[in-house]
Amino acid sequence: MKPNHTDAFCQNFFIKGGDFNNAGSVSSKVKDILNDIGIDSDIIRRTAIASYEAEMNVVMYARKAEFKLRLTPASIHIIVDDEGLGISDIEAAMKEGYSTATAEMREMGFGAGMGLPNIKRNADEFKISSVPEEGTTLEIVIHLN
């Protein structure tokens, strides 16, 4: 039976802030799911980059987050809803090179200020909203055609 526009696959993941040991595990699982169902390799690459950058932002800056993956016959939808410091200046955060990473994060090789710009570059649709001291929500859509 062929899926119709109402059919969807959904899976939720939990990301723990500060957990550098498991950083990247959610984006790896997403990549595996997409591989298993036969999604085009270019779309998998774009999704993996956006997922990884979103996951790392949670690990680096938030207490925790829910990462929601939803696949439809037409697109991949990702919502990352975190509880954390939020982003006080989204416009600045969207500029390549802008970073609020600590010295420790930079020593680990993170904090180049490319996370949000890389997400936007790899998404077909991207929305970000944030409330300082509460958290940030990313909505990422990648079309399958």
Give your account of this protein's structure.
- There is one protein chain.
- With 145 residues, this protein is an alpha+beta fold.
- The protein has one domain (9-143): Heat Shock Protein 90, CATH 3.30.565.
- The chain contains 5 helices and 5 strands, in the order βααββαααββ.
- The chain has helices at 25-36, 41-61, 90-93, 103-107, 115-122; strands spanning 9-16, 62-71, 75-84, 125-131, 135-143.
- It has a 5-stranded antiparallel β-sheet, with helices on one face.
- A hairpin with a 3-residue loop joins β4 (125-131) and β5 (135-143).
- α1 (25-36) packs antiparallel against α2 (41-61) and α2 runs antiparallel to α5 (115-122).
- 27% of the residues are buried.
- Residues 1-5 have low confidence and may be disordered.
SSE blueprint and pairings:
Elements: E1 9-16, H1 25-36, H2 41-61, E2 62-71, E3 75-84, H3 90-93, H4 103-107, H5 115-122, E4 125-131, E5 135-143
Antiparallel strand pairs: 1-2, 2-3, 3-5, 4-5
Helix pairs in contact: 1-2, 2-5
The CATH homologous superfamily name equals Histidine kinase-like ATPase, C-terminal domain
Oligomer: single chain
| Main pleated-sheet profile | 5 strands, antiparallel
Shape: globular
- Could you tell me how far the N terminus lies from the C terminus, measured between alpha carbons in angstroms? 20 Å
* Overall number of strands: 5
How are strands sequenced across the largest beta sheet? 1-2-3-5-4
Assigned CATH architecture:
2-Layer Sandwich
| Strand fraction | 25-35%
Count of the separate structural domains: 1
